[in-house]
Each structure stands twice: as structure tokens, then as C-alpha cells.
Amino acid sequence: MAVITPTQDQSVKRLLTRYAGRIRLERRRRYLSLSFLALGAAWLVSALFFYGDLLDPRVLPYALALPLLLPIGALVLERFRQPSTVETALAIDLRFDNQQRVLTAVELLDTKEPKSLDTEQLSSTTDLITPFDARVVYPVRSPLPAYSLSGGLLLLAVGIILFKGAPAGFVPIQALGLPGNEQALSALVSPTAASGLPDSNKPTETPQPDPSQTAVAAGSQGNDAPSPEQQAASEDAQSGLDRLQQGLNEQSATQSAADSLQQGDYGQAGDQLAELGQENDQLSEAAKQGLADSLDRAADESESTPDLQKAERSAAEALRKGNYKQIDEALKNLGEELKETAQNVIPQQELAQGFPEQSQESGQQGQEGQQQQGQQGKPSDQQSGQPQEQGEQGQGQQEGGQSQSGEQSDGSQGDPQGQQGEQGGEGAQGGQQGQQGGEGQQNQSPGGGKDGEGDGQPGAPGQGTRVDGPKDSADPNVEGNPFELENQPDQGKPSQDGERPALTLEGSAGASGASPVTPGGAVTAPGESNRLPVERWQIIQRYFGRER
Amino acid sequence: MTAWTPEREQRVGDKVQQQVAALEHELASVIVGQREVVRGVLTALLAGGHVLLEGVPGLGKTLLVRTLAECIDLTYSRVQFTPDLMPADIVGSDIIVEGAEGRGFNFQPGPIFAHLILADEINRATPRTQSAMLEAMQEQAVTVGRSTHPLPKPFFVLATQNPIDLQGTYPLPEAQLDRFFFKLTVGYPQADELKEIARRTTSNRSVKPHVVMDAASLQSLQQLIREVPVAEPVLDYAARLVMATHPGEEGAAQAANRYVRYGASPRAIQALILAGKVNAILSGRYNVSFDDLRRVSLPALRHRVVLNVEAQLQSVGADQILNQIIEEVKP
Fold first, then answer.
1. Is the CB of residue B273 less than 8 Å away from at least one CB of chain A?
2. Cβ atoms within 10 Å of B123's Cβ, excluding its own
């Protein structure tokens, strides 16, 4: 009867222990690798859902915390799934010739009455397997690739979450939407525009004259100077249009129409309003309500233009109701009314024809004129925040029908203010030129003259002073006459009393103002003046006034 | 108590392999080719079972048994089965013998009383004669009248049958087929083998095999082989293989459900395990493996499964079905 010796017994058991440890190590690494990969995948999925707003931010912490249990579960699972003796034996056999040597040897260890071949089987098995290194026979792959991949997934998930959860002021996140604050928006465009100062980077725009206004201006040029009633109507129309422009400028949907209004292109503004009416179904409810409120505010201050006011009220009401057709008709009607109202606007050139004659005797009048301009500018500022349109526009400018919205009451629009400042600057320059011209020369008599000391009286209302044209009607091309090309009198037409040139400039420093205009006479431009032009003063005043 | 020593292990293992290798060598000196058949016959011989050889005439079946008997120094007997063969022609009979004490019956043993029996074309004899033969195979004894006469040990029957020319034959019933340990199919020799056969048998040279083993050695080998350990999972695999041949039973294979009428008997697992042990020893191992069982499953099971009509109509053979079963049943 054979006997299984202790040596054999220990050999086999040692063999089993060694390989059981390798199996456990392999399982532990495999489970941990899979769990970490699952963890990384879960985090990445959660981050993607969070980024796509498919996951509630309140649920995100749980979605990130729960997968952390996976590695713990893997370790627990490996602890419970320890390989049995039979499993270990089968695994060892599989690494060799798979002839169930170890499997049989394991069973023979428990045999109470071993036979001769049993002992031989045990010894042959241990002799065959023992010389081999268990680490070579049962290699365990490194988990680093899996850990690296899971680490990459985790980092990617964290990056996505951080990217999504950046502060609200981070522009790239809100790149699809501009800052809500319009001042901030204008600051993005041009810092100086927000301050109201003229933007030096912005190219000087030459606004296209409105054909209707041009026609009016052309017509008015050939007619007599506008009557006070016409001037008043023009002022009212301008005021109403300015109010409308302010209201339209508050809404992004009507920004283009507001810009057209500001540039004096009333026809285009009306067309844009009509186009907006056709596409009003694309407006959000908030946009409609906002536009309705803006139109109501504009209507509240457009009492001088009842038709326009009525159109604004109708449009506001239609917007509040939300009916597509009603809004379309109302906005179209508003556009038409805008054009109608714009026809009453008389360009500055024509208005200048109605300016009172300036005396050339005292320069104080010029100063007074400036002061008047400033005072007139102030009250007009104070009244309703009306733009210093007339003060800003120089007499030398013929921006027919150019209406400036001027300084806004809330000062919220920087761009228009910039435009105002620019236009005011242009007007100021023109005014300055006019002043210079007025200061340098005098137009004393209808026959033209070259006194050069012409004082310019302050033009009414708050305009630049008037410079008389050359006294020699036969020779309008007097040296220094900036208007020689513009204001050449008809050679065949007899000059009429009271006929005055379209524009005159102020006289020299200290001059009282423009000299009396010789009907049909040429206009002369004075020399340079050290006095600050009225137009520029308005800008400075407006700028510093806003800061206070 | 026999302590384990490396020398002893080496002797036992090498001894068996050397003896079997020598036996195969001697058989190969006479029998050309047919190595699978020779190995199967030796396996059955070492396992103590009987073999049914199926093949066309002239393939050396008789020569194999005769050569085997010469190599092992066993008594050899050949019985040609014919339809008029009687059981007494096989097992023997009592004859009246006149002696000094007067007349009496004396048992005259038949040709079955030998170590190696070649039952040629066993399917030609009547069922009655077949049953007499098969009883001797199973009981290792012969009963004539009231006397039971034991057969010599080791007792090995190698029966043959012709797969063609089945007219006028009596196919062995399944119950009797089950008594054979292996059923080996003798195939037709290849061209090279044919040339070698012609070279050996058409010249004056004759090869006489040497005796490499005696009956006692064979018996000790048979006992040693039975000591080869079998692990529980291996035993379980053998049982599942046999159960897989039974249609409609738990664990039955799909092929069995479709083509088998009756599955293998418990003798099948005996054959599997014993043959597996022989195979393990001959492979240099001291334990039976799954591969050992798979290797011997065909000869051990092909004659024990009864095919149904669908298999016959589709000409699906037992080997094909068993291969599907072996593939389906995993260790």
C-alpha cells in the first residue's frame, strides 16, 4: 500500500498556494481596471450630460459620487470570489499541458488509501510544475494602461464640468449672447463711444441725404425762407422723430431703424419698420413687450406730432396683443407715418435762411450768440434732453434733414452720442469755420464788401453767426470765401431785398457777429478765431455734464 | 506500504510504455498500417475488453489477432461463423466417452476455450449461436448442461463482421453489441501500404513476431492500469458524455435528440474510463484527462447508440453524431 509522504503533500499545497495568489492578484487587477474604466466612463457621460444641460446640476454630485463605489465594489467582489482549490488546479493545468495533473493531485491529497500510482501521480506532477516560476507561468498584466485611460477620462470629465461651470462673466461661455448691458456692449465696440466722446477710430460717416428731405431741401432752397410756422413744425417733427429714434434704439430688433433715423434716412427707417412688421413672428414675446414699452414712452413725449404719436400708440398696442397681422399693419403704418412726419422736417440750411440779420459792430454779440447758443443748448438739454442738434450743427454744414438725436436723457447710448459728438464736432468745425469766417470778414452791405472785420451776430436760434457775403455781387469769388462755389448768385437774377445767402459765418474775434447780408452777395469766410466754437462747446458741456 | 521513490515511478511508467511499444512494434512488423486499429486492439486488451472489428475482407483482421496471440504467447483460436454453426460448435459439448468405469459424459471444450478468440463474420451465425458466444464473453465462463466451465484468463474475443454483403446475415442485436468494449472500423490501406503488403506477402521472406509478453505480464498490466486515478471532474465529464447520448434526458445533446433512438448503456462509461486509463498510461501520465476520454469516445460509443429512422434516411452515421455530441459537451 502506497503512502503519500509529507513532502509530496507540502509540495502540492505550496504549489496551490503560490498559484492561488497569482490568480487573486490577476483578478484584483482586472476588477480594479474594469471598475476604474467604468468610473471614468460614468464621469465622462455625466459631464457630457451636464454640459448639454441634460443633467440637473443638483444631480451632478450624486452622479459623480456614486461611480466612486465601483472600485470599492471590485475589491469586495474579489474578496468574495477567491479561487477554490479546484479552480486553482484547473488554472494551473491550463497553463501547462491541460491534462488535469494538478487537478488529480489535489484530489489524491485527500485519499485515505492511496494506491501506488497515486503517489507516483503526485510526485510526477510536482516534479513537472515546481521548477517553473509562477510569475512566468501565470503572468499578470500591468493595470497601468487601464489606469491611464481611466485617468484620462476622469480629467476630461473634470475639464468639461469646469468649462461648463465657469463664472458668468466669462465671455467665451456666453459667446453666443452679447452682454445684456448696452453700455457694456458699446464698451466692447469702442470704449470712447461709451463715454460719449467722439470715437476717433470710427471713420467719419457721410450720411446719405434722404431723397425726400433732399427734395424738400431742394424745394425749399428755391423757395423763400421757411416761415416760423414751418420752423415750428419742423422742430416738432424733429422732436417726434428723435423721440421715436430713442425708443427704437432701446430695442435690438429696431436698432437698424434707429440708426437710419439718426442718420436722417427716414425713408429707409420707415421701410425697415415695415419689414420688421412682416417678420414680427420672429420676435420673442419679451422683444415685443420691450418694443411696445419703448414706443409708448416715445409716444408720451411726442405730443407735438399727434399723428406720429397715434401711430406709436397703435403699434405698441398691437405688439402687446401679439397678433401677427395687427403688428404688421401697425408697424407698417408707423413707418409710413414716420416718413410723413419727416417731410415736415426742414433742413438746417433752409432754417438758416430765417435767421435774423447780424450786426457787425460788436463781437460781444458773437459771444452772446455763443452764450445764447449755450443757453439755448442748455434749456433744450434740460427740457427734454433734446439734442443740441441746432447748436451742434455748424452753419457751414448742409446736412439736409440731418437730425441728431443728441444727448439722450438717460445717456444710455454711447454710439449715438458718439455720432452726435462727431456730428456736433463736424458742425462745430463748420461752426468754427463759420465763426472764423465771420470773425475774419464782414459782410456789411448787400453789395458785398471785404471788411474782414465782420462781426457775426449769433444766429438764431443758437446757431453760428452770419457772415456777409462779398459786397461785389459782380465778383462773388472773393478771396477767402468758402461758399463761393455754393452760393454763387444767379447772374441774371436781380438781387432782391431781403434775400440772404443760405449760410453766413461769424466774424473775427470780438466781432459782434455777422454783418448784414447783402442780398445776392457772396459769402465770405473770416479768418481764424481763438474762441471756442459753439458746437464744440456743446460737446464739452454734454460730456462733463453727464459725469456730474 | 510502498513508499514512493523516483525510481519506482520511473519503472512503472516506463515499463508499461516499453512493453506496449514493443508489442506495437512486433505487430507492425507483420501488420502493415492500421495503427489506429492496432492501438485500439491493444487498448481493449489492456482494459480487459473485447473488440468488434468491422471491415471488408482481406484487411488483415485475422492476421492481426493471430500475430497478437503470438506476441503475447497466448493461445489462439479462430471460429468462422456460418449460418449452420451451432452453439455447441463454439462452446463445446458433452460427449459420451467409454472408459474403464463404463460410459459417461465428458465435456469437450469448444474453440472458445482459448486466450484469444477470433470470431470471424460473427453476424453470419444465427442469433442462438451468437448468444452462446456473447455469454462466454460476458461471463468468462461457459455453461454446458449443468456444468459451468470457466474460460482461460486473459480472455479476449476479437469479432469481425463484413459491412457489405449483408444478405443472409444476422446483425447483432444492440444488447449483444453492448458487450463489446470497442468497435473498430478497419479502413482500406493506402497505396503505400498496399505496396508494402505486396512486398511482404509475395516474397519468400516471412516475418515471425517475437514474444514480448506473457499472460501473467498482461494480467499485471491490466491490474496496474485499473489503479490509474481519475479525478472527479473527469469522471463527471465521462458521465455527461454518456448522458448526452440519451435523447430527451437532461443534458442530452441536440444531435442525440434528433438522430438517436436509444443512448449508450452504463457499460459505455466503464469503457470510457478504462480506455482512458490505458490511454493515460500509454501517454506517460498517471491520471486520466479529458483528452483521454475524448480520444476513446468514438470506439467506445459508436456501437452503443441506436439511431432512429431520420438518421438512416439522412444517412447520418453514428460517428458523425458522436462527434457533434463530443463538441457540444464541454469538460
1. no
2. 20
Q: Identify which of B318, B34, B51 has the alpha carbon closest to the alpha carbon of residue B161.
A: B51
At B266, the amino acid letter reads P
Q: What is the 3-state secondary structure (H, E, C) of A341-369?
A: HHCCCCCHHHHHHCCCCCCCCCHHHHHHH
Strands B51-54 and B156-161: parallel
Please enumerate in sequence order all residues whose Cβ is within 8 A of that of A232, keeping only pairs 6 or more positions apart, or say none.
none
Question: Whole-angstrom Cα distance, residue B39 to residue B15?
Answer: 17
Q: Residues A525, A440: contact at Cβ < 8 Å? A: yes
Q: Cα separations (Å) of A113 from A108, B1, B274, B277?
A: 9, 11, 20, 19
Residues A122-164: tens digit of each pLDDT? 888 888 888 888 888 888 989 999 999 999 999 999 999 898 8
Q: Which cell is A251 given?
A: 430695442
First to last CA, chain A: 118
SS3 readout for A2-19: ECCCHHHHHHHHHHHHHH
CA distances from A490 to A214, A222, A486 (A): 21, 12, 11
* Bridge partners, residue B117, by sequence: B77, B157
Is B232 within 8 Å of chain A by CB? yes
Q: Do B287 and A3 touch (CB under 8 A)?
A: no
User: Which tens digits make up the pLDDT trace of B78-110?
Assistant: 999 988 988 888 888 888 878 887 888 788 888
What's the rounded Cα separation, in Å, for the pair A349 and A220?
9
d(CA A214, CA A343): 10
Nearest to A123 by CA among A138, A107, A137, A102: A102
Distance CA A392, CA A538 (A): 7
* Conformational region of residue B231, where left means phi above 0, alpha means psi within -120 to 50, and beta covers everything else: beta
Contacts of A438 (CB under 8 A, 6+ apart): A358, A366, A454, A455, A456, A464, A465, A466, A467, A504, A505, A506, A507, A508, A511, A513, A514, A526
Helix (H, G, I), strand (E, B) or coil at B2: strand
What the block records as the C-alpha cell of A332 is 407698417
The alpha-carbon gap from A133 to the nearest alpha carbon of chain B, in Å, equals 22
Q: Is A180 helix (H, G, I), strand (E, B) or coil?
A: coil
Of residues A538, A517, A528, A515, the one with CA closest to residue A370? A538
**A430: nearest Cα among A486, A362, A490:** A486
**Is B12 within 8 Å of chain A by CB?**
yes
Q: Any alpha helices (H) in A52-143, and if so which ranges? A: 60-65, 69-80, 85-95, 101-109, 116-129, 134-137
Going by their DSSP bridges, the two strands B147-150 and B141-144 should be labelled as antiparallel
Residues A237-295: pLDDT tens digits? Answer: 898 999 999 999 989 889 899 999 888 899 999 999 999 999 898 898 989 999 999 99
- pLDDT, residue A440, reads 40
Q: Which three cell numbers stand for residue B96?
A: 459420451
DSSP state at residue A459: B
Residue carrying the nine cell digits 516560476: A133
Q: How far apart are CA A197 and CA A427, in angstroms?
A: 15
Cα(A509)–Cα(A363) distance, integer angstroms: 6
Under an 8 A CB cutoff, do B4 and A5 touch? yes
For residues A172 and A167, what is the distance between their CA atoms, to the nearest angstrom? 10
B223 CB within 8 Å of a chain A CB: no
Question: Positive or negative, the Cα torsion across B255, B257, B262, B263?
Answer: positive
Asked if A495 and A489 touch (Cβ cutoff 8 Å), the reply is yes
**CA distance to A316, A368, B30, B41, per residue, from B36 (Å):** 105, 135, 15, 9
Closest-approach residue (CA) in chain B for A111: B229
In residues, how long is chain B? 331
ipTM over 0.85? The verdict is no
Return d(Cα B252, Cα B242) in angstroms, integer. Answer: 9
